[in-house]
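Why run this: before we spend reagent on co-expression, it is cheaper to look at a predicted model of the complex and decide which construct boundaries make sense. The entries below are exactly what would go into the expression plan.
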Amino acid sequence: MAKDLVKILADLKEKEALGIVEDRLSAGDDPLDILDDARRAVGIVGKRFADGEYFIPDLVYSGEILKTITDMIKPNLAKAVEVKRLGKVVIGTVAGDIHDIGKDIVVFMLDVSGFEVFDLGIDVPAQKFIDKIKETGSRVVGLSGFLTLAFHSMKDTIEAIKKAGLRNEVKIMIGGGQIDDQVKAFAGADAYGKDAMEAVKLAKGWIGG
Amino acid sequence: MEKKWEQMSADEKQEAQFQKLLSPKDPGGNDLKFQSPEAEVNYKANITRIKDAIQLKKTPDRVPVTILPSMFPFINAGMTIQEAMYDYDRCVAAFKKFILDFKPDMHIGAAAPGPGKFYEILDYKLYAWPGHGVAPTSSYQCLEGEYMKAEEYDLLITDPSFYFRNFYLPRVFGALEPWNMLAPLTGILEMYGVAFNFIPYGLPPVQGAYKALFEAGAEALKWAMAMGGSAGELKALGFPDILGGFTKAPFDTIGDTLRGIKGIMVDMYRRPDKLLKALEAITPIMISLGLGAAQQTGNPLIFMPLHKGADGFLSDEQFKTFYWPTLKKVIVGLIEGGCIPFPAAEGGYNTRLKVIRDLPKGKTLWMFDQTDIVKAKQIVGDTLCILGNVSSAMLSLGTPQEVKDYCKKLIDTVGKGGGFIMSNGAFFDEAKPENVKAMVDFTKEYGVYK
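The model came back. Tokens follow.
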């Protein structure tokens, strides 16, 4: 009963973690506290990933366990949870490209690091990025891409953001399988991130945290 | 007298395969007629060069150079990818122009776009392709999903072919959905009751599926004729094809298109024993896939795109538990059958180099992408032939001088003493032609061993 959900979940012990959640729910614990513990645990997972102790499967698995826990808790929640966030990031895979594994890992890491992430999905036209920047007032934009066509798509997207008069309002980072500093210079981005940890570092550098 | 194939050692089989490549035949089984004496000299020099690079016994006359593109030849010829997928004649014409313009020592054929109409006939759901989910100018891209469900491992383990026919294929090909009604072939045993097994073939939906299949087969054949003609023509012009077939690491077979990345990653925690059993079950099938292809094409180089074992995708322990043991079995099985496994380590493989060192010497060719290739030379250079790794970004956005500088560095370090083939590191669509040309021309000029 007194078992520490944060530690158990961070160690990816699914059955035990779900057992604790069940026990705490039936003991009348505040569901918000349980959810908070679960989020803290996934935060630790993110930290271990950043430290090279955990790998992508660990992230994916912790995300799956968190989803199950959230589903268990939801019926007991009176209202949506408000989490204090460091800042907002708009992210998406650029037009013409439908790859999402890398982007999803970056979204996960930004989320557990305290950012509010607006994930626009895949094959995202430039206008959609512009609309979301305007709507949310995000100061950071992440562009993802895997194919060589993404080099040009990233450039086009950044030019469209410039044309919309928003270039000075946002910092833009890019990443993906074949992306490097050469692509950054070509596309006119502010930074290239080699991996998800780099993306978190960049976002933190730009909007604090 | 000549030894029988079955009695040969792996070394002898590999040598025999190379000798076969050195005396190519036409489709009628006669000695291939080269288009010029020069073409014949080039063809044989090219084969000898990669043979020496792969076997690690002799330093080749110079660093071999190849280009491994995906859609570049077609984009470079001014076509959309949609056109390359639907017009087979234009596809092979563009590929021929690509080979004659850039003159790599060898190539992997014009098959990358594949037959668009074939995919349409079978209603292929596993990919988005031009006109079907992506723009005419976009490459086809995989739609990952759980096409195999978590609770279906036992079915796959017990009878992979039955599982593929009755569960997996009906999900990825809309036209083959009625195959889920078919009875197992292994139930066909004796006269009493034998006809029961065939009842599904009388049902209209199943008959419809077979009708689509015949049509798809005819389309595949039409496409294959164009591809075969192209390979034969290029061979006669002095450019050998180094792609004899294809197989995969068992972990990727299950992770790429059956369970998907999320599925297989969670399976490592929730059902590790089932996953391990399934990997073992499909290992001999992956070996046969490569051996069968080599027999059919007469070419021993078996390409293996490696995906989910890259740096970061698995921990060291996961790599050694789930990925490497069955991959190694496939590689060794192919080698024992006289093949030359040609794995492409997509992404980075820096943390895996010490593990893959544990392979027979001079029997494999590895394409490296973002691996520190100089470090790779130090760790695996005496075990395997290294191919790579001019980056897509450099080919697409750099200058010819940057490409030359990078190639010089590769030739001076990785190329030292042989065992190296110059190439791009990842399959690419867009590139500046002058950069691709710089990679080939500079290697031919500077890469001569003294």
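The domain at 87-207 of chain A is CATH 3.40.50.280 (Rossmann fold). Residues 89 and 140 of chain A are 5 Å apart (CA to CA). Bring this page to Monday's planning discussion.
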